[in-house]
């Protein structure tokens, strides 16, 4: 029997609904249940792929090639359940489906309306592509009270009504602000938010209350009374030192026990939280620290590189060290002396990115890492910039560049116009639409015998997630390999360079894919584990 848990948010945005959903998933998993997590996003974009990372945070990519909300990354990191295209929907996607059906004549003369046509499409999404899951946790993006989320709230109200309380549960995540002058947490915004939810016919069953510290019993009782929820279902969700402590803290507060009780599941069912205790213990007791410079473009919004920051932390957990990240806007290197910013770091990472702005600064960071033998990790755009740097400064191809920045004489990085996608030929040109047309999703890659990549992965064939439009030009392979840049990972047909590494350097690796998307705290990605180990070794040298 599949049970559905709907998670809404109130009072303010950014309360960490994605982390709360992921943590609940982890707790239910720890009781032996099979879970699936889904996100319903109220914005009008068909997917976040065309949105700036500084607007909406990182775009998370699934194995099956969907560009999705970053919360799906939290879900995967907390549960290890691989997300699919069917786990994220937006208003834009729902409406474009409804309109396509209308144009096809599927509605047989009916007037097409939000209720029932849009709400039906949302409900179809909620229950699509499920098999033997015990729980489906559906997070509704945005904040209750927003105009955009109304059709989603209406759809989950209908869905829960159809399922009945034995198969549905509403959790509302709110904020209890702490007023220093009054010396207490205030419950009024929560009361209003619960009322707002009630006005659309949804009664919260469990309230998850975010606050800087644990909520006093008195406040819990008051919220219970005013919000028509049992006191034990007003769960305190205080700030914690590391997000991986969230499942443990929620469990201590009785969160998963109350969720199970609602569904009539015995609360003494076996529960194994060992993996979370272990991660938290390692995170809180590091044996050392390394400093990594992340030289990127969207450095003002930490969410823009969410999975990357997490994957670096996972690399730290694997090596029992803390990872301090210096987020550096690469444009600064076009104006200021690079050494002031990179001296004293034990690793340099250039992450994924788009567009010409700041590219020369990234190339300068690669040059610094190469010449000073500082561990270097280039991801996607960071690999492309590494190849350009080596082409210009080691192979003497002075005009080396990327066609992403306009016409260049030496197209060391060029537009990917055709490639093989599981036997299907994909074709692109300069005029193709920007949305949903990149090389996205999982692709296989063969690793070269004797390479660092092969040693790190301990296998000769890997599958990693991609999201890019440009690619290193294979016709430069010989010239670049002759000056030490080995093409250690190639697509199985040998046409697309996937990994490069520099010989004679302690750790210099560029990858065309995004390894950070597959890293988990309990299963750190081997490349991040190895990169952080190299950073630890580098710190011992100086
Ligand atoms: N802009 C580059 C491309 O499209 C790199 C993309 C990325 O880093 N994800 O190929």
Give average pLDDT, whole number: 93
The overall number of domains is 2
Question: Assembly state here?
Answer: single chain
Shape: globular
**Order of adjacent strands in the largest pleated sheet:** 13-12-14-15-25-24-23-20-21
Count of helix runs: 18
Instruction: Measure the end-to-end span.
Output: 59 Å
Q: What is the tally of beta strands?
A: 25
Biggest sheet, in brief? 9 strands, mixed
- What ligands are attached or bound here? glutamine
CATH architecture of the largest domain: 3-Layer(aba) Sandwich
Percent of sequence in beta strands: 15-25%
Structural class: alpha/beta
Radius of gyration: 25 Å
The CATH class designation of the largest domain is Alpha Beta
> pLDDT under 50 segments (min length 5)?
none
CATH superfamily of the largest domain: P-loop containing nucleotide triphosphate hydrolases
Task: Please give the share of residues in helix.
Answer: 25-40%
CATH domain fold name of the largest domain: Rossmann fold
Key words describing this protein structure:
single chain, alpha/beta, Rossmann fold, seven-stranded parallel beta sheet, 18 helices
Can you lay out the helices and strands and say which pair or pack?
Elements: E1 3-9, H1 17-30, E2 35-41, H2 53-56, E3 60-61, E4 67-68, H3 71-79, E5 88-90, H4 91-104, H5 114-127, E6 135-140, H6 150-163, E7 168-175, E8 178-179, E9 184-185, H7 188-199, E10 206-211, H8 217-227, E11 234-238, H9 246-252, H10 255-262, H11 274-284, E12 289-296, H12 306-319, E13 322-329, H13 338-342, E14 347-350, H14 359-372, E15 376-379, H15 381-393, E16 400-402, E17 410-415, E18 418-421, E19 424-427, E20 439-447, H16 452-457, E21 461-468, E22 470-472, H17 477-481, E23 485-490, E24 497-502, E25 508-511, H18 526-541
Parallel strand pairs: 1-6, 1-7, 2-5, 2-6, 7-10, 10-11, 12-13, 12-14, 14-15, 15-25, 16-17
Antiparallel strand pairs: 3-4, 8-9, 17-22, 18-19, 20-21, 20-23, 23-24, 24-25
Helix pairs in contact: 1-3, 1-9, 4-5, 5-6, 12-18, 14-15
Bound molecules: glutamine.
